[in-house]
């Protein structure tokens, strides 16, 4: 240490002295950097390291910036203790990314990921196969996948009459049957029967996801089974309208995981090894833009399949927009009569002949209360409405000049083709 300080004192007339030490496993290189034009001094202290020797030399002249003196090198003359060498690195906490986090997550779900194959026909002729992926989510052989993998979407008909070829990661093959399919959400259920135990994947929750969270996509792209890709969540509530998709409102998880043909229906997994989405599509003209159906939405669809045999969606006939302080301020600038609200859901359009028009909704209304509960987003309205078809719902709206109105609307069941 005294030797180092004596070396540093040689540059006491220089304006700036910096000592950068890079040490690992008992050895490293130190550099002294000086500026020769002003009077500046610095005192440094280094934790005592036993049995170290230091020497000034010019073994690494190319590593030191030009004009900043010669480098100092140091090396250890004693090896680290066996206890330090054998000491294990701390394990990452739950939800934290560690060296083996992605591999461990994939290992938990991988055995339950299956390859699906369905022959496709056109006017009685077989024209190829629909290839996709799925996840066994129950020991009874229930497989979660995409509807477009196992059901007709574009005029092609399945020549297998609802039968699906299912191949597991361990090589076993089964004939599966399409039990339920919802074209609107693109979610389907396939069932297989096995006399031997089947691997299953655990369903997690997508409500706690945040942009930047690590995720893993598993599937069989281009029939390449046991394929794993990783990335992050880019957006947790990408709206179908943002993607130019018509019909009723849907929300997707956007990730930058690599997704290709054959990945459809495969699981999106968090680093705890839980399924938090179903991979459904990608943007063809771009890389790193993949989309999945959130598992919370999928769980509701599965529950509808079990209780009603199909997904029941109520329809009001309202186009809605979430409000925030900035949007409200902008609307007030354009129209001084806009109601004084801090949150709510704006109704910019009412469909002619819809239940909402019959109930008395007008463009410009702001929904502030739905079925007796204050609301500030479309998601809250949808959650409160649930599957209430044919049941009256009371809605409180704010209108120009801060007038209020209480309306009673009776939702109808939505047309699946909407």
Protein described:
This protein has 418 residues and is an alpha+beta fold. Helices cover 15% and strands 37% of the residues. The protein has helices at residues 2-9, 82-86, 101-109, 147-150, 295-308, 325-334, 355-359, 378-385, and strands at 16-24, 27-35, 52-56, 72-76, 113-122, 125-136, 142-146, 157-158, 163-167, 173-182, 187-191, 214-219, 227-239, 251-255, 267-270, 275-282, 290-294, 314-315, 318-322, 345-350, 365-370, 373-374, 393-399, 403-409, 412-413. The strands form 5 sheets. A 6-stranded antiparallel β-barrel has the order 5-6-7-11-10-9. It has a 6-stranded antiparallel β-barrel with strand order 12-13-14-17-16-15. The longest helix is centred in the C-terminal third of the chain and has 14 residues, at 295-308. The termini are far apart. The relative contact order is 0.09.
Low-confidence stretches: 4-86, 155-159
Number of strands: 25
Mean pLDDT reading: 81
Number of discrete helical segments? 8
Give the termini distance in whole angstroms.
78 Å
- Rg is 32 Å
Shape: globular
Structural class: alpha+beta
- Can you summarize the main beta sheet? 6 strands, antiparallel, barrel
Order of strands, main sheet, comes to 5-6-7-11-10-9
Q: Which range best describes the helical content: under 10%, 10-25%, 25-40%, 40-55%, 55-70% or over 70%?
A: 10-25%
Beta fraction of the residues? Answer: 35-45%
């Amino acid at each position: 240490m005294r030797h180092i300080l004596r070396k540093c004192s040689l540059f006491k007339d220089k304006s700036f002295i910096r000592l950068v030490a890079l040490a690992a496993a008992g050895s490293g290189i130190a550099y002294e950097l000086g500026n020769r034009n002003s009077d500046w001094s610095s005192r440094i202290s280094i934790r005592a390291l036993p049995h170290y020797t230091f020497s000034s030399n010019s073994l690494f002249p190319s590593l030191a910036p030009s004009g900043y003196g010669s480098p100092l090198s140091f090396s250890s003359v004693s090896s680290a203790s066996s206890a330090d060498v054998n000491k294990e690195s701390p394990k990452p906490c739950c939800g934290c990314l560690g060296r083996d986090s992605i591999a461990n997550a994939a290992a938990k779900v991988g055995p339950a990921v299956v390859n699906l194959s369905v022959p496709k026909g056109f006017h009685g002729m077989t024209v190829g196969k629909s290839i996709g992926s799925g996840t066994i989510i129950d020991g009874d052989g229930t497989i979660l996948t995409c509807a477009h993998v196992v059901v007709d979407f574009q005029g092609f008909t399945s020549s297998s009459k609802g039968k699906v070829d299912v191949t597991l990661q361990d090589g076993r093959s089964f004939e599966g049957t399409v039990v339920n399919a919802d074209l609107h959400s693109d979610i389907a259920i396939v069932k297989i029967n096995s006399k031997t135990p089947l691997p299953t994947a655990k369903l997690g929750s997508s409500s706690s996801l945040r942009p930047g969270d690590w995720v893993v996509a598993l599937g069989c792209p281009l029939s390449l089974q046991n394929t794993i890709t990783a990335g992050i969540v880019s957006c947790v509530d990408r709206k179908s309208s943002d993607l130019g998709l018509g019909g009723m409102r849907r929300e997707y998880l956007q990730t930058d995981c690599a997704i290709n043909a054959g990945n459809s229906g495969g699981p999106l997994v968090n680093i705890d090894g839980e399924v938090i989405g179903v991979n459904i599509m990608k943007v063809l003209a771009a890389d790193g833009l993949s989309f999945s159906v959130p598992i919370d939405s999928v769980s509701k669809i599965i529950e509808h399949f079990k209780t009603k045999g199909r997904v029941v969606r109520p329809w009001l006939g309202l186009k809605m927009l979430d409000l925030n302080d900035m949007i409200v301020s902008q609307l007030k600038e354009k129209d001084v009569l806009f109601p004084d609200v801090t949150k709510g859901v704006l109704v910019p359009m009412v469909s002619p002949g819809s239940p909402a028009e019959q109930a008395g909704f007008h463009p410009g209304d702001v929904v502030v209360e739905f079925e007796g509960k204050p609301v500030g987003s479309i998601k809250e309205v949808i959650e409160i409405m649930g599957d209430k078809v044919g049941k009256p719902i009371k809605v409180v709206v704010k209108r120009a000049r801060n007038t209020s109105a209480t309306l009673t609307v009776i939702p109808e069941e939505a047309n699946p083709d909407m």
